[in-house]
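Lesson 9: reading folded outputs for more than one chain in a single document. The general rule is that every protein is listed as its sequence immediately followed by its structure tokens, and records are never interleaved. Here is the first one.
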Amino acid sequence: MMRLWMWTAIVLVAAANVVVLAGVAYNRSGVAEALVTLTERELPLAYTVEENSGMELRLEWQQYWESRSYPGDPSSAWFDQAKLETVGYDCSSPLTDPSARLKYEKALPRKAFAVLEYEGEAWGTWVAEAEKDRDRIATQIGHQEATRKDLQVAEERLDRLRRTGSRLIAVDVGLDPAQLRGQYPDKGKYIIVPAEVRLTIVEEHTEKHRALEPAHLRGFISSILVNYINVPMELHDALDCVRQDRSASSGAHEPRYRVMVKYGRRYEPWIEAIQPIK
């Protein structure tokens, strides 16, 4: 009986490995769904496991959020009520109805596909907004509406964005990845990835007792479902200098390497090459 259980366990493990390997082979077959070269800014070292020499890179990306931009700014408004409805949410009930608010607050996350744009127009807008924020605070200092400390914080944030912030920005979501690829055909600039999205209520924005924007529904990407990428053993040497640096994950570095990443038929990534940036 013991031998039977042992052989059953071995067979199950072997079958599971076959399924995994078949999935990997299918994902990497045919033409790559995307081929993009990122840097340490977008793919920092996640961790190392010295016992088995495992190494992974973590996908870093950003999305606009209303509290981080000016009210009504179109750059932060693309995931609106209409977009929520395209991914399956019923947004027909008005927020003035208390029962509707309860329904929206209990809304469950949904699976979808997200489009991440690399170093494009969205990234330029992100930096431009940070510059506007710094300039606005500088003007407010003269009117005693802000402090030097506020300005320092804004300048430091702008500097981080320019030097070390991820340039992968979420720009769209949908249920059909093929349709999204038709809208964003540049495979070296746009990555389409499985994601989880959620609905939230943005409360009325007021300033000095004047309503600037009424309460409304807004969506956001709560997670990218595959955000860790294994580094093949043969590419470990390219990351030795980073792995030996204990501050590698602090985010204080300008990028020290480039990573060529491919996405396959299952929209899952793998690493093709890593090159040091000298």
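And here is the second record, again sequence then tokens.
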Amino acid sequence: MGALAVELPISRPAVSRHLRLLKEAGLVDEETRGTRRIYRLHDRGLAAVQRYLEEVWGDAAARFRLLAENTAARRPTDADA
């Protein structure tokens, strides 16, 4: 965690808390090596997050795209002026 904490703009306790939450959510795996803890992204956890985001935001993104396309189709062009 130390190497990771150095690169982030938050405190070491905050990094530790976030890693614990990510581990509990199944997004990272933790391996203890002596006094160090090695964290790795958990593939199945990431796939679950991706599915969730696609489910939630996929519909919203599709609706936004349709709105944008319909708005652009109704906008007058320079040739219409």
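What the second record shows: The chain is about 65% helix and 15% strand.
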